[in-house]
Amino acid sequence: MHYAQSLDDLMSLAEVLDITGVAFMQGILDGKHPAPPIGKVLNYKLNAVGDGRIVFRGTPLFDHCNPLGTVHGGWYGTLLDSAMACAVMTKIPKGSVYTTLEYKVNILRPIPLGTEVDAIGVTDHTGRSTGIAHGEIRGVSDNKLYALGTTTCIIMKPNNA
User: The pTM is what?
Assistant: First the structure.
């Protein structure tokens, strides 16, 4: 997996619209398309792609701590937003794109620094204009549930592609 280093490394809107959402996500997993730079910054990467299901795997580091020395809630939120929204992306047809409209995260317990976790996103509904998904963060080795989330995404057919 290679991370995009500049905006020029990312796929153009026309290229994205020319493939299905699941093909786009599978291309990132296979290294055909660059991974988004946020994964490098927050130390997580795409780990599995399915029809309506995505898994990101990551490990929080000291750089992801708040002033109290625990993993910042934004780290949980970004991982869950990525997993849930990308699960919706796997259901997007050729010619459409999506973006997160809103998401909610419930943090159940702190993730110890250095603990590898999976952020799993699963679609609940994908229609013509909205996609809804839920997600969870679980420890890879202990299977502990660390956080839950839900999202609503808007699905769009750009006119200017």
Answer: 0.94
